[in-house]
Amino acid sequence: MQSFKDRVLDIVSKIPKGKVMTYKQVAEKAGSPGAARAVGSIMKANYNTKVPCHRVIRSDGKVGEYNRGGSTEKLKKLRAEGAFK
Looking at residue 1, what is its pLDDT? Predict the structure, then answer.
């Protein structure tokens, strides 16, 4: 059985270009609906470029932080993919 972390990374790796999921949605899909903060911690520690952690945003619609350039870089990437105007 996959660990929670592995499930999260698998889910996030399948978010298509131009789409986003919230930390809460990822946690729910990974089977732990109350673990949105844990998803954030996993994303913060992710440096695997095959896992598009920039596509995971906050439930309030704000982009949140990004470990490769902060929220400004995250928003720039999302805009380039067509996920944000």
Answer: 85
Which is nearest to 54 in space by CA: 34, 76, 32, 25?
A: 76
Q: Residue 85's pLDDT is what?
A: 74
pTM of the model: 0.95
Tell me, yes or no, if 10 is annotated catalytic.
Answer: no
Q: In the numeric block, which tokens belong to residue 51?
A: 């896992």
- Catalytic annotation, pick one of 26, 53, 78, 83: 53
Confidence of residue 52 (pLDDT cuts 50, 70, 90): very high
Beta pairing, strands 56-57 & 21-22: parallel
The residues spanned by each domain of the chain are 4-81
Nearest-5° angle of CA 30, CA 33, CA 34? 125
Residues ≥6 apart with Cβ < 8 Å to 42: 5, 8, 9
**Which fold would CATH assign to domain 4-81?**
Arc Repressor Mutant, subunit A (1.10.10)
